[in-house]
Design goal:
The protein is an alpha/beta fold. The protein has helices spanning about 45-55, 75-85, 100-115, 120-130, 145-160, 175-195, 205-210; strands at about 1-15, 20-30, 35-40, 60-65, 70, 85-90, 165-170, 195-200, 215-220, 220-225.
Length: about 230
């Protein structure tokens, strides 16, 4: 089943009298449960595209449907509610809250966007802590964790609302080779376990090599679509 359908998306930014086209009639379709990479150099438009899919911005022109919602029509409040229900985010710099423990960082999205009883929140967070191998670090603060551990927490936080889609912007950029490999395999495991769609903005060959579908962007256009089959680890 189709999760995302984009048709001729254009995104233009204006700076004074200068207009910059970040995206130029981009079209694609992404199915549920996919592991997809948008690849390309800095400035190619991949992060802009993730921002549009994540309802953090709106296209200048074109159609974009995410989880059966025409997201360009949503106002700010509606977009926030839609994100909270349907989309998780993983960032290059982890974006964990330093004053919260591992458990509290993962729980935080549930307290913000969903009304769940405390015991159900605790059960859901505990299950994810076990899934990402961080149960023994539940009471640690971010400053006490390694980069790989922080990114495991970020993966769990992105999944705690049980979103249909997780958007990851350069999630392995600050990780060494072995840690990045572990995080990628963890995310693939989460796709298999929860049927969550992962979409990456990246130029990291480690992610590109594991993606099922790779879209290459250059100068705001999709120049290639490749369907790959990663080798089992």
């Amino acid at each position: 089943m189709s999760l995302i359908l984009a048709r001729d998306i254009v995104k233009t930014y204006s700076t004074g009298e200068i207009e910059v086209q970040a995206l130029r009639k981009v079209s694609f379709e992404i199915m549920e449960g996919s592991f997809v990479a948008f690849a390309g150099p800095s400035g190619s438009g991949k992060t802009t595209l993730l921002n549009l899919i994540g309802c953090l911005d709106k296209p200048t022109a074109g159609g974009l449907v995410v989880a059966e919602m025409a997201v360009a029509r949503l106002n700010r409040l509606q977009a926030a509610k839609f994100r909270g229900k349907n989309i998780g985010f993983i960032f290059q710099n982890f974006n964990l809250m330093p004053v919260l423990t591992t458990f509290e960082n993962i729980e935080y999205p549930l307290t913000m966007v969903q009304t769940l009883p405390a015991q159900e929140r605790a059960n859901r967070v505990t299950a994810l802590l076990e899934s990402v191998g961080m149960a023994d670090q539940r009471n640690k603060y971010p400053e006490q964790l390694s980069g790989g551990q922080k990114q495991r927490v970020a993966v769990a936080r992105a999944l705690v609302t049980r979103p249909k889609l997780v958007l990851a912007d350069e999630p392995t950029a600050n990780l060494d080779h072995d840690t990045a490999h572990m995080i990628i395999q963890l995310m693939k495991k989460m796709t298999e376990e929860f049927n969550t769609t992962f979409i990456f903005s990246t130029h990291d060959s480690r992610i590109i090599g594991e993606a099922e579908v790779i879209y290459t962007l250059e100068d705001g256009r999709i120049t290639n679509r490749e369907v790959a089959h990663a080798q089992p680890v």
